[in-house]
Here is the input.
Amino acid sequence: MNLLKTALTYAVLFSVGAVTSVACFEPELDIPSFRCNPAQASAQGDNGCPGDETCCSDDPAAVGGKIPNYYMDGVSNERYGAPLFSDNNNALSTQGMCVKTGDFDSPLVNGCPVPCNPKWDAATINEICMGSQCCQTQELDPARDCIMVDGKWRGANGSDILAERSGWGGQHATNQDPIAAGCTVFAQGDTKSLRDCIEQLGVASSRGFCYLLGCPCVEDVCEMKNPDYVPRCTGGAPGV
Here is the structure.
């Protein structure tokens, strides 16, 4: 099956014509200022941000669900792989934040802060963030980003697309690559690569930046729908 046929097959699952939200969750971080769309900025030939800021992807997804090889350029093995939407592939991301990149050291070619996944285990966060914290940069939309699988609520992800539990696109509010445009470019005609990229897509709870000064507390508003949810932040309540 060639890439075009595969892409058309997935178009049945993806909601065509969707516009990803770049809405107004205030991350309370000093460096990123507000949300932006790196792919859109690249297509328009600018940074997509005011002044000397750059629209930086906050998505650490990598091929095969691996850890991004930010510190080992080109390395691909059982643990590390190429980033799908950050570093060299920043322009494939529809999710990002405006950042003044010259204010800190970065291993990324574009000088952007290091993207991370707040849901990684502590050892992986420590490795990728070099001892800093992983701060989620956008809040989930409780009405649109959540999905129930096997009796439990969670944030939607690419596995739900492949299992036809989600139409992606405009169905969700904070989803990466809503019509698989970035994944299609990344795959470069390879069906297996396209499917793998789609499987790695996620919503806001899987995106963030490594940050030295401490993170704001962000509840997982999808998991909060479960009666056994343990609140992360003061004043939270399960089963919302």
Q: What stands out?
A: The helical segments are 3-11, 38-44, 122-129, 158-162, 181-187, 191-199.
